[in-house]
Structures are given as structure tokens and as C-alpha cells.
Amino acid sequence: MDFHLSSFYPIFVFVLVVVGFAVVTLLLAHLLGPRKRTSVKEMPYESGMDPIGTARQKVDVRFYLIAILFLVFDVELLFLYPWSVSAYETRGEPPAPILPVELRGPIFWEMLVFLATLVVAYIYAWRRGVFRWR
Known about the structure:
The protein has a domain at 61-127. It has four helices and two strands. It has helices at 9-32, 61-78, 80-86, 101-127, and strands at residues 90-91, 96-97. The longest helix is centred in the C-terminal third of the chain and has 27 residues, at 101-127.
């Protein structure tokens, strides 16, 4: 294959415009932005807790429960993406299904069971008050 540098000029121009826009935007925000320094603005902020006192204080368990639930539901819902993309897609000439036709029904019902399990887990966490914050 014979590549010429001229075929990459649009990409170079695009990258130059994007980097230029980012730099100009940051410079304008720095130069034209308000500069009121207050003690509240200069305080560190961490995990939704006021940074008063020692860093060795105990963190509420609910913070960890919300984080774990987010990870569980986020990772579990990622399993839906490959199925939803490939469930009824066909490829090739003549068009052939990615998933065998015989497996479409059982996989569909398995995904419904999977979603029902997620809903039951969500309702359980909700009823237990995991999502209620003080």
C-alpha cells in the first residue's frame, strides 16, 4: 500500500483544531474567570464529607453499600449489551444469523430471567433502605 502524507492532512488539521480549541478555552477561562478566594472554596473536598477533623474518621457504611450496588448493577447490565447487539443481527452473503436460530428463544428467556433477577435485587435493596440517606 502506498500512503502519502497528504492523505493525512485532514486528520492533522482536525487534531490541531481540537488541541487549539482546548488550549484557548482553558486560557480564556483562566484569564476571564472570577477570582474570589474564600476559605470555603479553598477547603479540600472528599467523598461528600466535610473535611473537618482527622482523616482517620470512620466512613458511613451506606457510602460503601451504594458504591457496591452501583458496581454490581453496572457490571451486570454490561452483560446485556453483547446480547442486544448480536441477538437478531445477520452477517455475510447470504445473510446468516450470528446466533443460531435454535438458540434465540432460550437465550431470550434467559435474558428475561436475568433482568428479573436484577429487578428483584433492586427491589430488595430498596426495601431494606439501602438507598435512603440521612
